[in-house]
Known about the structure:
single chain; alpha+beta; five-stranded antiparallel β-sheet; four-stranded antiparallel β-sheet; 14 strands
Amino acid sequence: MSSWKSSSTVDSSKHSASKRIDIGVGGMTCAACVRRVERAIAKQPGVISASVNLATGKASVSYLPTDIDEAQIRASITQAGYEPQALDRQSADHAKESVEGLRRDLAFSLTLTVPLALLVMLPMMIPALMTGMEKLLPHAVWRWLEFILATPVLLYAGRRFLMSGWSEIQHLNPGMNSLVMIGAGAAWTYSTLVLIAPGIFPPGTDNLYFEAAAVIVTLILLGRYLEARARGRTSQAITRLLRLQSTTARVIDGASETEVALAAVRVGNQLIVRPGERIPVDGVIVDGMSYIDESMITGEPVPVAKKTGDEVIAGTVNGQGVLRFQATRVGEATVLARIVRMVEEAQGSKPPIQEIADRIAGVFVPVVMLIALL
């Protein structure tokens, strides 16, 4: 996972007073977006480090509360052209909705782009077909048909590129969306002007490029859809892991049992687990014997015998016996929580070659736009 250090000098003695927050970031689509958000956050005074995970859409920020607060960090994300979000919006349901939306737009785009590409390419490959088409309908009608097929692809299926690309340019942070918007938009605008006012162009330059605009949008949509599916599968895996965690626990208070929220359990509390229930936190058995299904940790389907003095792990399932155990690890310190954290970190981890690719992506878009302008 890449990490950007704040340019401000932060005394290492102050690190003990630092805080860490996770913020959802909406609108990121590529490695250049990740670098842009990381830079925007890291340059704020008081930020120790900022790390952004494209797969989970999450920014992890370490900062000094005395120098900067969460609202200012969120504002820096907004200024970079992205949307700070609550983490619960980064759920699997949100990911699924994104995949479904991309699937619908891709299907719509393919439905119009395939016949458009065939309409343009086949007559070029088979000259006799062009003659037959001109006998069926005037040449001008076929050209307007290209406009009718391409326009919904760009303005409807490709609307996310237009909106995001314009936002990137407004914030002086052009990215891949800007390239798609300018490339497809230029092809469509030029072709539309050729249709409406062909006389303004020199002879031999009144060509149409509607199929180029449609194909650009369709191919980028296909890539986004495949990427969203991959992200969705990983997010669902994390969600399934989190569902293994109990939401409550029975804490023994003297001679009575009290059911409390999991967050209220502390190290040293004694808890009781009945048959068929999940172990709420990590601990050591102080009384009882049972068989526990630890397949979520070990992959072994055979339940493991547990007795007094043995360790139990959060998320595993108790068998037929009643267990009394003492909590040794709670919250983020449990084995289950560490597994979830490792999976998330694995999503955002980058090999050295990807670090190089990210640096290239950071300058690729501005350089391409400058070359095109020249």
